[in-house]
Design brief:
- The structure is a single chain.
- The chain has 6 helices and no strands.
- The protein is mostly helical.
- The chain has a domain of 78 residues.
- Helix 2 packs antiparallel against helix 3 and helix 2 packs across helix 4.
- 24% of the residues are buried.
Length: 153
């Protein structure tokens, strides 16, 4: 999960840089292009990119999905947070999603144990963001089912 979070953070920073650089482009006033470079039509020598195919393998975030746990919600979250930062804690995160009964309970435990995501703090306002990330591939868990009911997913 920590690796996934780093990748997402990297993608967000790239998309923000792209958005910022495109906002600084000056456009002429009016609808007519003033130079050939402003023409919205691509040059005829440019080949269109091929459409994506479904041949790409799906990435399984949670390869070892347990169906139950004896841990309480707070204990499961604490166990996921206790995994050393350089190690993958995806299985432990999945256990949190079945040990907790709701987004509210899970979120409170995450706020109390932000080390699950290798961060020093998680604000209650960020719980929906983290829920969307961890529920990818775990929709059948109580936390993610609750997130669907709440409209988060």
């Amino acid at each position: 999960m920590r690796i996934l979070m780093a990748v997402i953070a990297g993608l967000l920073s790239v998309s923000m840089l792209t958005a910022c650089s495109s906002e600084s482009d000056e456009r002429p006033v009016g609808n007519a292009p003033t130079t050939p470079s402003d023409d919205p039509k691509p040059p005829s020598s440019v080949e269109p990119e091929p459409a994506p195919t479904d041949d790409a393998p799906d990435i399984e975030i949670y390869p070892n999905k347990p169906t139950s746990t004896d841990l309480s919600c707070i204990d499961a979250v604490a166990a996921a947070a206790a995994v050393p930062g350089a190690e993958d804690n995806n299985d432990e995160v999945f256990v949190t999603l079945i040990a907790c009964d709701s987004v509210e309970e899970w979120g409170a435990a995450i706020v109390a144990n932000p080390g699950v995501f290798a961060v020093s703090s998680v604000a209650p306002s960020e719980i929906d963001f983290y829920t969307m990330i961890v529920c990818s591939g775990a929709e059948e868990t109580p936390v993610c089912t609750d997130a669907v009911v709440r409209g988060t997913l």
